[in-house]
């Protein structure tokens, strides 16, 4: 299998731009793709701001920041991914959408390119089946925010070849991150444990056991979590949280994974958390204000 040098990233949202950031900082050539150039530009602006913060904290130099930004090429067409050695899909958490992306993108990719999904929960085996290369398909699940988080979960589908897994492991190590291996079960390891806790926090709010502030303070100070579960849900994105709970509920057929109706209501309102400025907190003012 060819060396991985050029990385294509489909989706320039909070995960896609974070993955582009760490790949470019590690010296990889990156093509960052989204539906429109406006969305790609917005992703690039986030990377620029985050790298500037890293320069201020002496994590990278100004020269390294400029060189890394120069390595990221904006793209609004899959054709520009044709010479990539690895393409990582980081589009919204919807199986139908991801399947459509693979069906459209795979025909233009190099036959030996590896294709990966950053999905938080969806079956890698099922996504692989929507591609023309299930043996060169793998789950590479980065954590949010990508530049700060050390872990990357690797998930093999039933057909993933050993050399694909080895190449993915080498790639993750080149980013100075730590890979772990999870079996291909709904939501893998991290979100299988984390999301039911967040969903339970939302039930706690729904049943009136505590306010947003009380629940987050209780878990920060009482369980020593770095941030409260409702703040974390806003950070992940409530649409993503709901999709993961739906995958757990359907995939494991157990009522303990039933998404909280209040989570459904927030998503229906378009209150998706930080990315839309409103979720369990309202971020439009100077300091976040609880919405319940
Ligand atoms: N948010 C998290 O904490 C987190 C953590 C790990 C993994 N993930 C996973 O990463 C993926 C992306 O999540 P996110 O938080 O970055 O979401 P996001 O909403 O911030 O970004 C999704 C991006 O995908 C783009 N997109 C949609 N359809 C597309 C298409 N056909 N082609 C190209 N781009 C398209 C959207 O325009 C948007 O910019 C999801 O699968 C999610 O489950 C999220």
UniProtKB/TrEMBL annotation:
What are this entry's molecular-function GO terms?
NAD+ binding; oxidoreductase activity, acting on the CH-OH group of donors, NAD or NADP as acceptor
Keywords from UniProt, A to Z, are:
NAD, Oxidoreductase
Q: Sorted alphabetically, which InterPro entries does this protein's record hold?
A: 3-OHacyl-CoA_DH (IPR022694), 3-OHacyl-CoA_DH_CS (IPR006180), 3-OHacyl-CoA_DH_NAD-bd (IPR006176), 3HC_DH_C (IPR006108), 6-PGluconate_DH-like_C_sf (IPR008927), 6PGD_dom2 (IPR013328), NAD(P)-bd_dom_sf (IPR036291)
Record PROSITE patterns:
3HCDH
Provide the 3-hydroxyacyl-CoA dehydrogenase C-terminal domain boundaries. 188-283
Which Gene3D superfamilies does the record match to this protein? N-(1-d-carboxylethyl)-l-norvaline Dehydrogenase, domain 2, NAD(P)-binding Rossmann-like Domain
Name all 3-hydroxyacyl-CoA dehydrogenase NAD binding domain ranges. Answer: 6-184
Chain ranges passing through the membrane: none
Q: Among the record's GO biological process terms, what is one? A: fatty acid metabolic process
UniProt superkingdom: Bacteria
What positions does the entry give for NAD(+) binding? 11-16, 34, 93, 98, 120, 144, 275
Q: Does the keyword Lipid biosynthesis apply?
A: no
Write down the position(s) of the site called Important for catalytic activity: 141
Claim: NAD is one of the keywords in the record = yes
Family affiliation: Belongs to the 3-hydroxyacyl-CoA dehydrogenase family.
Listed name of the protein = 3-hydroxybutyryl-CoA dehydrogenase
């Amino acid at each position: 299998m060819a060396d991985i040098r050029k990385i294509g990233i489909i989706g320039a949202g909070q995960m896609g731009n974070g993955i582009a950031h760490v790949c470019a900082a590690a010296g990889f050539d990156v093509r960052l793709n989204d539906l429109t150039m406006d969305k790609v530009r917005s992703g690039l602006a986030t990377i620029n701001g985050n790298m500037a913060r890293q320069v201020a904290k002496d994590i990278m130099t100004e020269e390294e920041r400029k060189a890394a930004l120069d390595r990221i090429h904006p793209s609004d067409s899959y054709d520009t991914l044709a010479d990539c050695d690895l393409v990582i899909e980081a589009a919204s958490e919807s199986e139908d959408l991801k399947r459509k992306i693979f069906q459209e993108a795979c025909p233009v990719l190099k036959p030996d390119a590896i294709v990966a999904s950053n999905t938080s929960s969806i079956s890698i085996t099922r996504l692989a089946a929507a591609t023309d290369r299930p043996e060169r398909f793998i789950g590479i699940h980065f954590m949010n925010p990508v530049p700060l988080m050390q872990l990357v979960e690797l998930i093999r589908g039933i057909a993933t070849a050993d050399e694909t897994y080895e190449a993915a492991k080498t790639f993750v190590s080149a980013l100075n991150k730590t890979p772990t291996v999870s079996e291909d079960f709904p939501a893998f390891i991290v979100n299988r444990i984390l999301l039911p806790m967040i969903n339970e926090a939302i039930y706690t709010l729904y049943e009136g056991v505590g306010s947003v502030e009380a629940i987050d303070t209780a878990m920060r100070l009482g369980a020593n979590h770095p941030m409260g579960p409702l703040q974390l849900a806003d950070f992940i994105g409530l649409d993503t949280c709901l999709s993961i709970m739906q995958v757990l509920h359907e995939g494991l057929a157990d009522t303990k994974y039933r998404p909280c109706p209040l989570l459904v209501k927030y998503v229906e309102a378009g209150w998706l958390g930080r990315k839309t400025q409103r979720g369990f907190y309202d971020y439009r003012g100077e300091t976040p204000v609880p919405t319940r």
